[in-house]
Specification:
- The protein is built from ten helices and 13 strands.
- The longest helix has 25 residues.
- By secondary structure, it is an alpha+beta fold.
- The strands form three sheets. Strands 1-2-9-6-11-4-3 form a seven-stranded mixed sheet.
- It has two domains: 57 residues, no CATH class; 289 residues, Jelly Rolls, CATH 2.60.120.
- Helix 3 packs across helix 6 and helix 4 packs across helix 6.
- The radius of gyration is 24 Å and the shape is globular.
C-alpha cells in the first residue's frame, strides 16, 4: 500500500495493481487534467507514484538548547543537562543559543574569514591552507586555515591581518563556552562537572576557518566524515549547507536562529563514553549562489600529551556495561582517522579498529 505523508492511501496494493488499465489511464491524461478526471479514477494511478519517494520519510529537526539561566537556577540547569544528554545520545549534534558569545564576535569572525579569502592571491599565498586535506579531491573547492589556539596561542603576527584581532577574541570566548559544554556533558554522564575537563579533553583548542567556493554543481558534497576530537563548536554563515546523518537520512542543520552555535560530539568522546554519546557523520552540501564560510573550534588534548592513554571512563563501566573499546593515545587515533578518511571510510570503520 502506498501512503502519502498525510496518511491517505494513494494507490491499490501490488496484488490488485492492473498496469495495463493504468497505462490506458495515462493515455487519457494526454488530454490534460480533464482527461484524467473523465476516466473516473479516484486515486492517483500507481504508475505515476515513485515508491522510493521521500513522502513517507519522517521530518527531523536538530535539537536547539537554550542555555539562558544555566548558572542561576539549579532546576533550570538540570533541565538543560537532560536536554544535552538526550541530544548527545540520540543525535550527537545540537545547537545552543544564549551561550554568552556576542553576535558581533561571531559575525566578526565570519566576516574576517570571508575578507581573507577574497583578497588577492598573493596575500593568501603567505599562509598555508587546507591542512592535510589536500589529498582529498573534494577539498579542492574548500580553502581552510587551521590554528592551534591553546594551550599555547600563536604569535599574533602568525594570524592573517583580516581576522587577527577577532580570532584572538573569539578563541577566548569559545574556549569558555567549550569548558561549560564539557561540564554539562560530564553531568549528563552522571559524573562530576569537572571530570572531562580534568581529563584534559578541553586542553587543546584548534580553530579551523573554512571558505567553500560557490559550486556550479550543487549536487556535489564535501565528503561525509566525523570529527576526530572530543567536541566541536561550529559557527556558520547564513548560507548554511551543513547536514547531519540521522536515522538513515541527511538532516539539514540551518544557520538559524542568528547566533546559534552548532555542537557536535567527536569520535574520542564516543570512545571514552563507551558509546553513550554518539559521534555521527556530517557533510556540507554545495551551493551555486555564493561562497559559504564556517569556523570550527575543535577540542582535544595538547600535542604534549601524545603518550597519555584514553579509554572508556571507569566510572561508567559495570558488569552490565563492560568496556567496548581498548585504550589508545589521541595521536594513534588521529593517525588511524586520517588514514581511513583518505581512503573514504566512515566513522564506524575508524572506531572499529579500537573495539575490543
Amino acid at each position: 500500500m502506498v501512503v502519502s505523508n498525510t496518511g491517505k492511501n494513494l494507490a491499490v496494493t501490488t496484488a490488485d495493481y492492473d498496469r495495463t488499465r493504468e497505462l490506458k489511464v495515462s493515455d487519457c491524461m494526454k488530454a490534460g487534467v480533464k482527461g484524467f478526471v473523465d476516466t473516473g479514477v479516484a486515486k492517483i494511478p500507481q504508475i505515476f507514484i515513485d515508491e522510493k519517494s521521500d513522502f513517507d520519510m519522517p521530518h527531523f529537526e536538530i535539537p536547539t538548547i537554550d542555555l539562558e539561566g544555566i548558572d542561576k537556577d539549579e532546576t533550570r540547569r538540570k533541565k538543560i543537562v537532560e536536554q544535552v544528554r538526550d541530544a548527545s545520545e540520540t543525535w550527537g549534534f545540537f545547537k545552543v543559543i544564549n551561550h554568552g558569545i556576542p553576535l558581533s564576535v561571531l559575525d566578526g569572525m565570519i566576516d574576517g574569514v570571508r575578507r581573507f579569502n577574497e583578497q588577492d592571491i598573493e596575500v593568501k599565498a603567505l599562509y598555508k591552507t587546507n591542512f592535510d586535506l589536500n589529498e582529498l579531491p573534494a577539498a579542492k573547492r574548500r580553502v581552510s586555515l587551521y590554528y592551534p589556539m591553546a594551550p599555547v596561542p600563536p604569535n599574533p603576527e602568525e594570524l592573517p591581518m583580516a581576522f587577527r584581532d577577532i580570532m584572538i577574541k573569539y578563541s577566548k570566548q569559545v574556549n569558555r563556552l567549550g569548558i561549560s559544554m564539557f561540564e554539562l556533558l560530564s553531568e549528563a554522564l552522571g559524573l562530576n562537572p569537572d571530570h572531562l575537563k580534568d581529563m584534559d579533553c578541553a586542553e587543546g583548542q584548534n580553530i579551523g576557518c573554512h571558505y567553500y567556493r560557490a559550486c556550479p554543481e550543487p549536487e556535489l558534497t564535501m565528503g561525509r566524515h566525523s570529527d576526530n576530537d572530543f567536541l566541536t563548536l561550529l559557527v556558520q554563515d547564513h548560507i548554511g549547507g551543513l547536514e547531519v546523518f540521522h536515522q538513515n537520512q541527511w538532516v539539514d542543520v540551518p544557520s538559524t536562529p542568528a547566533g546559534a552555535i552548532v555542537v557536535n560530539i567527536g569520535d574520542l568522546l564516543q570512545l571514552i563514553s563507551n558509546d553513550r554519546f554518539k559521534s555521527v557523520e556530517h557533510r556540507v552540501v554545495a551551493n551555486h549562489i555564493s561562497p559559504r564560510v564556517s569556523v570550527g573550534c575543535f577540542f582535544s588534548t595538547s600535542l604534549q600529551k601524545s603518550t597519555e592513554m584514553y579509554g572508556p571512563i571507569k566510572e561508567l563501566l559495570s558488569e552490565e556495561n563492560p568496556p567496548i573499546y581498548r585504550e589508545t593515545t589521541v595521536s594513534d587515533y588521529t593517525a588511524c582517522y586520517h588514514s581511513n578518511a583518505i581512503d573514504g571510510n566512515s566513522v564506524e570503520s575508524v572506531l572499529q579498529h579500537f573495539r575490543l
